[in-house]
Amino acid sequence: MLQPPQPDIVPREHTDGVERPGTAAAPESVAERHQAYVTLLFNKYRTSVHRYLTRLVPFDDAAELVQETYFRLLRHGELVRVEAMARAFLFQTAANLARDLRRRRASHRADQHVQLDDHDVAEEHQGPDEHLAGEQARALIERAIANLPLDTRTVFLLHRFRDLSYPQIAQITRLSARTVARKMAEAIEQLTLALGQAV
Amino acid sequence: MKPFRHQQNPARTASEWFALIRSGEVDARADEEWKEWVDADPGHSKEYEDRELAWEIAADLGESPTIQALLNETDQHSRTSRRRGPVPPSWRLVSWQAFAAAASLVAVGVLAVFWYNRTSTTVNEYATAIGEQKAIALADQSIVTLNTATKVRVLYSRATRRVELLQGEALFAVSKDPLRPFEVHALQGVSTAVGTQFDVRVDERGAAVSVLEGTVIVAPDESAKSAGVSVSAGQGVIYPVGGPVSPPQPADSVRINAWVSHRIVFSDIELADALREYNRYISVPIVLGDPHLGSRHINGVFRIGDEEAFLGALRQGLHLQVTRSDAQIVLTPR
Fold this sequence. Notes:
heterodimer; A: mainly alpha; Rna Polymerase Sigma Factor, Chain: A; Arc Repressor Mutant, subunit A; 0% strand; globular; B: alpha+beta; Jelly Rolls; Phage tail protein beta-alpha-beta fold; 3 domains; 13-stranded mixed beta sheet; three-stranded mixed beta sheet; 18 strands
């Protein structure tokens, strides 16, 4: 969603993403600023996003999805100028694209499930579930969730699958917001450890 | 919660950052600290990535029966706590007398529960229809996932956790309780576990026990419980009615992990065997019009419940003709 150009006090020359109160104000559109910011963010995290994607989809698809992620972010409109949040959004966009691709592949495969003996499609059959997001990883994560201590699991489930915010979870569970955050950290730590077994 | 930057463990720090960033409450100062941390070492970025990955893979489990069961349980808890209303903010200041009164009530409650548990066994039965799957969270947090056409009876008392598999197949994720062994009774035999994950399936060939995690003791009848065969993770055994228990073989893990996520996996097996497996999930069976077809091989991953996709694959992949009647679906060469 592009917005009409607006006067801006950010100097055009800045390339490091740090907003300085400029005196030599050059007009720059929101769209331009957005593109500059996305590009900056992207250059910083490109390697990381690529590695991340190779763990979600087959290697050959990852590079393509990196590009697609970039274009998605460009089209998305203004990003929060808090790097931690923007990075989270960047990775989530990449993960969503990976998920879409896996779904498309799965429905494509459904058309050609059965093969004749002499019809060698073994390579294609091994496709998407070879990478980390496959069956095994899901089973490990599922088990890790089931094995979390009750409070920790409740916090995690409510945040992940019921989309509740920490304050909402705090109210329901009667834990403090601090404790909710601590339980979330605990949960993600356990899940990551479980996933480590798959690598 | 602010992540402890002084902490020497980047994995834990990454988890704390992850939790903070998910809260959405990152101000400019925290963001500066975040950048400092993530830029300090490529390993930090990697650790953080691992957490994002775990988070995203978890998102794919929204429809898994296990997660559904856990969510139901959580929702129930949430409802009960909402009914009780908010806690008074001054709860820490409750008087000593009130505390003593509450403590004695708790003591009575504990005694009552103790007495109740000593003397009673709760019995619950759960069943699935053909093609249906269901996960149930039991009182001790163990989870039983029922596969197609399955029936179990759960008998819990203070001393034992006993589940009777009356028909079909179930996966047991057992919570640890060394004082209360978890027993699955099937075809007179019994599998005993303390805290583990294992699958039991009964059909005309006998009862098959596959262990995914931990160790399970399998005995062909109840009197020989202590002298059973020890089956460890990755192994499986089978016993007919009355025994004996086979020596341990590799477990059927691929098939089990697949059915838990609503899938059937055939990797290069004969069509006759594939149909025997597939027919467990449908009420009108698929049969071979020509027995020679049974030795054709089949590969693929199929979603349980999507019968049309499976039949379509048989038509196109194996060039078979599919003829439907009310009682069965017949496959013939085309």
